[in-house]
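haha ok so turns out i had the wrong file open the whole time. this is the CORRECT one, sorry everyone. sequence first:
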Amino acid sequence: MQFNQTGGTAGQINLTVTIKVIGQPPSVQAAVINYNATISEFLNALNQLSCYGPFQLSGTQVFYDVNGSLTTDPTKIYTYSWIVNISLLRTSASISAKIVPVYLNYTGVKNFTSAIIHTHGPLISGTFGLTLNGAPLLYGGSPALPATISAGSLQASINAVLGFGNT
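then structure:
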């Protein structure tokens, strides 16, 4: 995801989300960042929100000047852009939770945006095969292991080839 704050000159932004799960009351969460937060500070704030924190975040930061050109000159920064990689597939409730910025002692343009750059691909499907010491691993008597095989079932298949049985 890419998050942008354009035009700020001072203050903080309270990143507020409301998480709605069917059968439960809405959960409101918030984390505060400075308008010019570093990527580390931004990720720390997102990690406080249950719709982002558990999903292994990493990221980078770029800056744009008033013309929308990349800049590294701190005196020309007009837009702070935080590009966040989300390693794990988020739940539907987490994906639907949108950040609503609340500005605190803030000066400048109030323009916080977010956008999905690349969506997660489909979950893994299909089958695969493995051999150990020249013998195929079997699952349900078949060498076609499902992509969704559990760790326990895979371990049992490995143990069977090694002659350990189920442990």
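The helical segments are 39-47, 92-96, 151-162.
again sry for the mixup
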